[in-house]
């Protein structure tokens, strides 16, 4: 049966060192507001740490923890965790546990290479209504995980907040990330990721992974999404300040998505319905793009569409918004599209090699 252990310095309360000297499985440590320090890593033996203050900042724990093969869970609630070692919580390859943060402030130790959560085994990681400040999560190659983040914030300019290299699921809802990219970064990764109303700078998707994103906002000015290998990405009602880059044999399906630029190479395939592209599309190799009711724009010197190799574009009811009036294609690249409206009365076609471009609904001429 779980014990409720009230920890503090008042009469009738258990001292911090005494509470941790011989903790029992399923102990719930109720921490009075104050500062608590551990000079050595503590084995999390199915413990719950719950702060009794009005906010997480009232109860500070300066420590680092380990989960062993026999650990079933560790829970932190309403506490401010300061990362003393590398990492704050380590889960070895032999682990099979739940790790939960609820209404916590987690603060890293100013080392970008030292994640706050470092897992190599099987883990169910839950982060709810919490703030991770310069503190990252690393789920290593070989790990098997279920990651759930909701109503939380990750902040820290030099940090990769989430790094996923194993296999598992990641569900992130109504949360915000600042700083470095969220990464599925290993070519062997098998991750199913869901984003719902999430703000993040940039997402890398690698391996044999999938992404379903709804109303996500990607804020990096250069790249918002980079997809490669054999990944699948499905975007709905999303906004990207930067470009989308596709490589390998990946597939992108996007509906009502606004992005800065779209680039495809290798055998990448993109299917877009609605939405807008501010700085045109570039394709090479044998990549394919199918566009339906997409608004295309580009600067005056750039091309609305630029193709090489055996790349191909098909389109229906496209809207050319300018100010560019140029489509460029070379090698065996081809484009066939119907244009619903154009801000330019005439489109210039810069074709070399065996390239072909056929447009309906707007005048065009070779240059």
Give a verbal description of the structure:
This protein has about 375 residues and is an all-beta fold. About 0% of the residues lie in helices and about 55% in strands. It is built from 1 helix and 46 strands. The strands form 4 sheets. It has a 20-stranded parallel beta sheet that branches. Helix 1 links the parallel strand 1 (about 5) and strand 2 (about 30). It is elongated and about 90 Å long. The termini are far apart.
What are its keywords?
single chain, 367 residues, mainly beta, 16-stranded parallel β-sheet, 46 strands, elongated
Q: Helix coverage percent of residues?
A: under 10%
Structural class call reads: mainly beta
Oligomer: single chain
- The outline comes out as elongated
* SS strand fraction: over 45%
Q: Please, what is the average pLDDT?
A: 94
What can be said about the biggest beta sheet? 20 strands, parallel
In summary, what is this structure?
The chain has 367 residues and is mostly beta strands.
Q: What's the structural blueprint in terms of helices and strands?
A:
Blueprint: E1 4-7, H1 16-21, E2 28-31, E3 34-37, E4 42-43, E5 47-51, E6 59-63, E7 65-66, E8 73-77, E9 80-83, E10 89-91, E11 96-102, E12 105-107, E13 117-119, E14 122-128, E15 131-133, E16 137-139, E17 144-150, E18 153-155, E19 162-164, E20 167-173, E21 176-177, E22 182-184, E23 190-196, E24 199-200, E25 203-205, E26 210-214, E27 217-218, E28 223-227, E29 232-236, E30 239-240, E31 243-246, E32 251-255, E33 258-259, E34 262-264, E35 269-273, E36 276-277, E37 281-283, E38 288-292, E39 295-298, E40 305-307, E41 312-323, E42 326-329, E43 334-342, E44 346-351, E45 356-360, E46 363-366
Parallel strand pairs: 1-2, 2-5, 3-6, 4-7, 5-8, 6-9, 7-10, 8-11, 9-12, 10-13, 11-14, 12-15, 13-16, 14-17, 15-18, 16-19, 17-20, 18-21, 19-22, 20-23, 22-25, 23-26, 24-27, 25-28, 26-29, 27-30, 28-31, 29-32, 31-34, 32-35, 33-36, 34-37, 35-38, 36-39, 37-40, 38-41, 39-41, 40-42, 41-43, 42-44, ...
């Amino acid at each position: 049966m779980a014990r409720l252990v009230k920890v503090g310095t008042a009469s009738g309360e258990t001292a911090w060192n005494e509470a941790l000297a011989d903790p029992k499985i399923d102990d719930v440590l109720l921490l009075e507001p104050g500062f608590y320090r551990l000079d050595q890593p503590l084995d999390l033996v199915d413990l719950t740490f719950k702060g009794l203050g009005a906010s997480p900042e009232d109860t500070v724990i300066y420590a680092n923890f380990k989960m062993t093969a026999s650990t079933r869970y560790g829970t932190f609630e309403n506490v401010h965790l300061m990362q003393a070692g590398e990492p704050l919580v380590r889960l070895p390859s032999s682990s099979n546990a739940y790790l939960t943060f609820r209404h916590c402030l987690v603060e890293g130790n100013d080392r970008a290479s030292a994640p706050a959560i470092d897992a190599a085994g099987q883990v169910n990681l839950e982060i709810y209504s919490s703030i991770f400040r310069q503190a990252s999560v690393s789920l290593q190659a070989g790990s098997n995980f279920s990651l759930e983040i909701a109503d939380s914030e990750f902040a820290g300019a030099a940090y990769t907040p989430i790094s996923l290299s194993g296999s598992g699921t990641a569900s992130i809802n109504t949360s915000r990330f600042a700083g470095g990219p969220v990464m599925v970064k290993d070519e062997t990764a098998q991750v199913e990721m869901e984003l719902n109303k999430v703000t993040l700078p940039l997402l890398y998707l690698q391996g044999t992974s999938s992404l379903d994103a709804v109303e996500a906002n990607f804020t990096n000015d250069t790249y918002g999404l980079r997809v490669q290998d054999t990944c699948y990405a499905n975007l709905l009602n999303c906004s990207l300040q930067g470009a989308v880059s596709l490589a390998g044999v990946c597939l992108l399906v996007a509906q009502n998505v606004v992005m800065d630029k779209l680039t495809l190479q290798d055998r990448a395939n993109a299917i877009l319905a609605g939405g807008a592209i501010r700085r045109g599309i570039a394709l090479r190799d044998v990549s394919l793009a199918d566009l339906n009711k997409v608004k295309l724009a580009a600067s005056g010197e750039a091309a609305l569409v630029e193709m090489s190799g055996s790349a191909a574009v098909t389109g229906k009811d496209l809207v050319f918004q300018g100010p560019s009036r140029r489509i460029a294609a070379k090698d065996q690249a081809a484009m066939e599209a119907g244009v619903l409206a154009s801000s330019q009365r005439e489109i210039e076609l810069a074709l070399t090699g065996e390239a072909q471009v056929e447009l309906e609904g707007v005048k065009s001429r070779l240059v």
